[in-house]
Amino acid sequence: MNDLSAKKDGSVTEFTCYRPVSVHTRTSLETPGEDWLAEETPVALVYNGISHVVMMASPKDLEAFALGFSLSEGIIESPQEIYGMDVVPGCGGIEVRIELSSRRFMGLKERRRQMAGRTGCGVCGVEQLNDIGKPVAPLPFTQQFSLHALDGALGQLRHFQPVGQLTGCTHVAAWLTPQGEIAGGHEDVGRHVALDKLLGRRSREGWHRGAALVSSRASYEMVQKAAMCGVEILFAVSAATSLAVQVAERSNLTLVGFSKPGRATIYSHPQRLVE
């Protein structure tokens, strides 16, 4: 029920990840029963004392989230450019306080100046696909993955989603070995946050061979995040959007949707996949 990874002044702070609630159902309108709700908490990422973004997230694995977000958003290029990190409860939410290298912090401040005054969704008004998001260097073709191995991994996915099994309210992102084993997975109420948590964990663990699997649809942001971190193959349990496919094609990422046992829809760069 709690995440024990958050620390403040050397002590452990507990964050509740789900809680019970009294409910009525269609079959028991007269007698209330008990159900479980996943916690959704504002999490602020604060770089060198400046708050950069506030995300709604599950209050667990927040150090992995902050590291993955920093990598997938191009704030840093390697974990070594973060000198320290503290997860601190705040008023109405949680702060992750990140100490960046001076060079990376200067780059972040420049980006914030460029973004000043922008409104809307962040995509409206751009003239070319190349202007959307961040430039991603084309990925190499170093990985291969068997679709038979994917079937085995799909059967394991639920074991990395304990809050989701209880509440039905979370997404999960997992890293698959070439043999179809799940090296690790992270869940969250937000699919982007779950992926960032996985990307942060992947960078710490040094997982390079294999593929990423997400329980959600694949949007262009998720494809871009994966490509920014060097992930060559991304499996999604649900569909992909048209822009996600375009970004995957441009960045040389193999994107697969509707990943089910015995079924997969390959949208881009199928040469990495084998029967």
Summarize the helices and strands and which ones pair or pack.
Layout: E1 2-3, E2 7-8, E3 11-12, E4 15-16, E5 18-25, E6 28-38, E7 41-47, E8 50-57, H1 62-72, E9 82-90, E10 93-100, H2 102-115, E11 145-146, H3 147-156, H4 162-167, E12 171-176, E13 182-188, H5 191-205, E14 211-214, H6 220-228, E15 233-236, H7 242-251, E16 254-260, E17 263-268, E18 273-274
Parallel strand pairs: 7-10, 11-18, 14-15, 15-16
Antiparallel strand pairs: 1-4, 2-3, 5-6, 7-8, 9-10, 12-13, 12-14, 16-17
Helix pairs in contact: 1-5, 5-6, 6-7
What features would you describe in this structure?
The protein is of the alpha/beta class and 275 residues long. The chain is 27% helix and 35% strand. The chain contains seven helices and 18 strands. The strands form six sheets. A six-stranded mixed β-sheet has the order 13-12-14-15-16-17. Strands 8-7-10-9 form a four-stranded mixed β-sheet. A hairpin with a 2-residue loop joins strand 5 (18-25) and strand 6. Helix 5 (191-205) runs parallel beside helix 6 (220-228). The longest helix is centred in the last third of the chain and has 15 residues, at 191-205.
Order of strands in the sheet with most strands = 13-12-14-15-16-17
Series of secondary-structure elements, N-terminal to C-terminal? EEEEEEEEHEEHEHHEEHEHEHEEE
Strand content: 35-45%
- Helix tally equals 7
Mass-distribution shape: flat
Strands, total number: 18
On the 0-100 scale, what is the average pLDDT? 87
| Assembly category | single chain
Query: Which percent range fits the helix content?
Result: 25-40%
Radius of gyration: 19 Å
- Structural category is alpha/beta
The largest sheet, given as strand count, sense and whether it forms a barrel, is: 6 strands, mixed
In the predicted model, the low-confidence regions spanning at least 5 consecutive residues are 1-12, 117-122, 124-128
Report, as a whole number of angstroms, the end-to-end distance. 40 Å
